[in-house]
Amino acid sequence: MSGRPPKALPSTGPHSLRDMPHPLAGSSSEEAVGGDSTPSPDLLMARSFGDKDLILPNGGTPAGTASPASSSSLLNRLQLDDDIDGETRDLFVTVDDPKKHVCTMETYITYRITTKSTRVEFDLPEYSVRRRYQDFDWLRNKLEESQPTHLIPPLPEKFVVKGVVDRFSEEFVETRRKALDKFLKRITDHPVLSFNEHFNVFLTAKDLNVYKKQGMALLSRVGESVKHVTGGYKLRSRPLEFAAIGEYLDTFALKLGTIDRIAQRIIKEEIEYLVELREYGPVYSTWSALEGELAEPLEGVSACIGNCSTALEELTDDMTEDFLPVLREYILYSDSMKSVLKKRDQVQAEYEAKLEAVALRKEERPKVPADVEKCQDRMECFNADLKADMERWQNNKRQDFRQLLMGMADKNIQYYEKCLMAWESIIPLLQEKQEANCFQLVFIPRWSL
């Protein structure tokens, strides 16, 4: 990604929640549409977590905590927390060993999926299967169909610009492997998705095509009900708590999109600068052949520029392979959350329409039909699952971006330290030449003047 030719590829459950206000209650409707009303505590709470995550502190550590000696020590501490949390897990999934397959009709990459588990749902303690990208896509679609009330982690984007990115290069395949590994790990850590039958099939089946042909036969009841909700129902107003979530997701995606575009421009400029440095350094080396006394200093300058070029290449690769993928993953994550939020709105709109139809009946004590109660249950299920997944997503986001920003700071510090070390190494050489010239001037015989 940094100008060099690409290498060939070698062949916990939901938390308890407060009871939500009735969606047709007068106070909720007035708060939702009234411009002069005071925001409810739920809205303030929802906005507070959004503002907290959008604003970074300017410095300092909390009272009673020791400042880390270096960014690397903090990274090690974060990794240690992950290891401690891993001791309580009963399902481990890894994605590795990408292999290129060349067929008559197509060329594609497969990845090895290794699963280790002590759960009773698995017949064996360990499985190893190979999957390609379209298999991961099948899994995600099945999870969306069977678990419509939950946030499904996003997959890395499938399509790349032809001629710009070689999708079979080692760098691209490794970046995708990391993203697919994170995708499965997020599902593994989810208290509901990790028990999904489609996920079990994906991890254990030797021939996944047999299950793909079954089509929509394995949809759950919740998935069926949500799937058949039509667009004929119009939502009156989204509850303030979910309206705040929607506003936060819009702002969050906008900020990340801006950072992504600027970061790509920075990388492009760094690659162009790297090309100039690689032409700039050898000029001093060829010049040194024409100079006697300046030959050694000129060679030193050429070596310094070469070291700076290597450091810049490493920094650019880190931004391309580590920084940008996280940004894009969370942009896609916000789109996934908006999709779940939209499904929740559809269920609420259906419930409101059916409840209003019951209220219009000319009965003193109309009995609530069973379909209305079922619709209310689906809405409450959506609310609980969406809030639990949102909280889980916020926790993951804070940890991921803390590691990302700390890693970015660490890589930039290493880059400037390498450049500083390279230029400082030539100063003694230049000082020796200067002292030698001064010594010759002092001991020149008078008769030679």
Automatic annotation (TrEMBL):
InterPro entries: AH/BAR_dom_sf (IPR027267), PX_dom (IPR001683), PX_dom_sf (IPR036871), SNX30_BAR (IPR028649)
Cited PROSITE patterns: PX
Low complexity bias spans: 59-73
CC annotations in GO: early endosome membrane
Keyword annotations: Protein transport, Transport
Domain PX stretches: 89-210
GO annotation (BP), single: protein transport
Gene3D superfamilies registered for this protein in UniProt: Arfaptin homology (AH) domain/BAR domain (1.20.1270.60), Phox-like domain (3.30.1520.10)
Membrane topology of the entry: Peripheral membrane protein
Location, primary (coarse class): membrane
Localization (cell): Early endosome membrane
GO molecular function, one term: phosphatidylinositol binding
Lineage: superkingdom: Eukaryota
Pfam families listed in its UniProt record: PX (PF00787)
Coiled coil: none
Region annotation Disordered: where it falls in the sequence: 1-74
Family: Belongs to the sorting nexin family.
Subunit text: Heterodimer; heterodimerizes with SNX4.
Protein name: Sorting nexin-30
